[in-house]
Design brief:
Length: 81
């Protein structure tokens, strides 16, 4: 049985909270295309420069939740948290 803390919505909330510490915006499409629904659905953007960090190739919102979490986890590790 899955717990609420492991739900996608809970993982998204945690990701967004941690990303804010680093000035990163977690972006999700309002109306995802079929290929986005099949794989991906996330982009990370630097809040200061507005540069897309991950999820823009080969199409917009191509990063999975796991890829976005891994990117933020790497930032956390580099910061020593």
């Amino acid at each position: 049985m899955s717990s609420r803390k492991d739900s996608v919505a809970a993982r998204e909330r945690v990701l967004k909270r941690i990303a804010i510490r680093y000035g990163i915006h977690v972006m999700m499409p309002l109306k995802p295309e079929p290929k986005v629904r099949a794989h991906g659905g996330y982009m990370l953007r630097d809040g200061k420069t507005m540069k897309l960090l991950i999820g823009e190739k080969p199409y917009l919102f191509a990063a999975t939740l796991e890829e976005a979490e891994a990117y933020i986890d790497a930032l956390e590790a580099a910061a020593g948290r």
